[in-house]
Amino acid sequence: MEKGKENHKAHCLILPYPIQGHINPMLQFAKHLSHKGLKITLVVTKFLRKTMQEFSGSSNISLEAISDGFDEGGRADAESSEAYLALFRLVGTETLSELLEMHKTDSAVDCIIYDPFLSWGLDVAKKFGLVSAAFFTQSCAVNNIYYHVYKKELKLPLLETEKFVNIPGLPVLEPSDLPSFVYVHGSYPASFEMILNQFQNLEKADWILVNTFHKLEQEVIDWMAKFLPVKAIGPTIPSMYLDKRLQDDKDYGLSVFKPITDVCMKWLNERASTSVVYVSFGSMAELGAEQMEELAHGLKTSNKYFLWVVRSSEEAKLPKNFSEETSKKGLIVSWCPQLEVLAHEAIGCFITHCGWNSTLEALSLGVPMVAMPQWTDQSTNAKFVKNVWKMGIKTRQDEKGLVEQTEIARCINHVMEGDKGEEIRKNAKKWKEIAREAVDEEGSSDKNIENFVSSLMNPST
Ligand code: UDX
After folding, report:
1. InterPro entries given for it (predicted)?
2. Which residue in the list 11, 22, 148, 214 is annotated as catalytic?
3. Structure ipTM
4. At what angle do helices 356-364 and 422-439 cross, to 10 degrees?
5. DSSP assignment, residue 115?
6. Which of 321, 407, 411, 451 is least enclosed by beta carbons within 10 angstroms?
7. 3-class state of residue 161 by DSSP
């Protein structure tokens, strides 16, 4: 490694938490960096490398694997989340260190871009004297909430009498707008601990990158920047959808599920512009059987065309014969190429769980949303979709927490037709343009990425 040399070709190792919702944005970011001339190694777990459905690389991005201690059966083999995370920390630290040692002889690594869910990635970077960059895959608003909990500035559990929560940088929130780990105190303790741990060594990170863009979260980004050097670098949507300069990275992905691409795209090609409701709850959320039934009937009642992603593990909850009965109106697939789908002109609305990637993707591709959050950060994202970005509405639940079929049909109609949805549809177009500007040359995110890249290319300056 020849530090100090002009335009040194820096080598970045990228370490995402091994789930689809974290791999996608970090891989997309890897592509941006690769286009800007960095050498990239993406690191996944051995189990994931063995089982993933799709990976096509380019000369500048290679794939390597470390161990989480469950190389044969993956996370499902762990006794509990606590056990999984503890072993991953231990074995991950060891095997990541081995990987770095191995690279010393050929192409030494200069920087680790780590997912702060794996906060030990930063400790490894420090041990090897490397540049470290935390990459937050969730919104800045959500990170700000977690940070306040970590600093004990937001005390948990919330008092039952507390009707509103005031956190600097954020609009006034109702308790149910907070991430589920905060609102439902005590739920998923291991995951919550991992989330709070993101901040435990963060002050040692050289860079703090967040998958968002400045105009989207201006107030909270500016607020956080007062005490943490956060840099917005998103949306990390593949450049071919957003950035006219780069058109060649369409087929580059890493998928845990197998997308049914041809069937979906052919079906969409046969539909009229903005006539289809796209429905997906991401890679993890599980709906109750009753909720699944209400959703199915809601789609049917709306009388709109629909493309619904029902993962194989969720399929048994579909009402009997539903796909056959609705085959003239709907297509149900186990996984789809979501970005291509959202970018298709046939899509008129997205019923979404509001995972951060899905939210950013819909925003950046100008698709109005019906927000139906399930857990983790999704309620907070839904709040912003409805009240701040005004790009969708949120479904109302009955007293049992169920979103009924009439409500689903109402929301679809609200967003897709008539005067009431006009503002939402207008805002969808507006946000698409603003997202593009952020990543376009000299855009706010592009500048932040440029600064990051040039600091690695010219380490002495
Ligand atoms: C998880 C959390 O649940 C989410 O709340 C958090 O913000 C990120 O991690 P996930 O639930 O999978 O992610 O949702 P999301 O963030 O929306 O990520 C799903 C990704 O899978 C998106 O990039 C989406 O484009 C992709 N996807 C989804 C497909 O490619 N095909 C599909 O059929 C469905």
Report:
1. UDP_glucos_trans (IPR002213), UDP_glycos_trans_CS (IPR035595)
2. 22
3. 0.99
4. 90
5. -
6. 321
7. coil
What are 160-172's pLDDT values in tens digits?
899 999 999 999 9
Q: How far apart are CA 88 and CA 438, in angstroms?
A: 36
Residue 460: the pLDDT is 73
- Parts of the chain with a pLDDT under 50: 1-5
DSSP state letters, 28-52 = HHHHHHHHTT-EEEEEEEHHHHHH-
Q: 22 CA distance to ligand 1 centroid (A)?
A: 8
Nearest partner of 104 among 130, 142, 84, judged by Cα: 130
CA distances from 413 to 304, 363, 432 (A): 9, 19, 22
Catalytic residue among 68, 71, 110, 115: 115
- List 279's β-bridge partners, or say none: 308, 351
> Cβ neighbours of residue 96 under 8 Å, at least 6 residues apart?
15, 43, 66, 121, 124
Atom of ligand 1 nearest to the CA of 283: 12
In angstroms, rounded to a whole number, what is the distance separating the alpha carbons of residues 11 and 27? 15
Q: What percent of the chain has pLDDT over 70?
A: 94
Please identify, by atom number, the ligand 1 atom nearest to the C-alpha of residue 361.
Answer: 25
- For residue 357, give both structure tokens: 């990637």
Label residues 349-386 b or e (16+ Cβ within 10 Å = b).
Answer: bbbbbbbbbbbbbbbbbbbbbbbbbbbbbbbbbbbbbb
Ligand 1 geometric centre to CA of 21 (Å): 4
Atom 11 of ligand 1 has which residue's CA nearest to it?
282
For the question of residue 243 being annotated catalytic, the response is no
| Confidence (pLDDT) at 2 | 44
Report how far ligand 1's centroid is from the alpha carbon of 210 (Å): 17
Q: How far is CA 195 from the centre of its chain?
A: 15
Pocket, ligand 1, Cβ cutoff 6 A: 20-22, 24, 137-138, 280, 282-285, 309, 335-339, 355-358, 361, 376-378
Nearest to 205 by CA among 177, 229, 171: 229
Task: Write out the E strands in 295-381.
Answer: 305-309, 330-333, 347-352, 369-371
> Which of 139, 146, 279, 358 most suits a substitution to test ligand 1, by most atoms within 8 Å of the C-beta?
358
CA-proximal residue: ligand 1, atom 2 (nearest):
355
d(CA 216, CA 363): 10
Tracing tokens 């990158």 back to the chain, one arrives at 209
The two three-digit tokens of residue 149, written as one number? 């909990």
Angstrom distance (rounded) from CA 276 to CA 94: 48
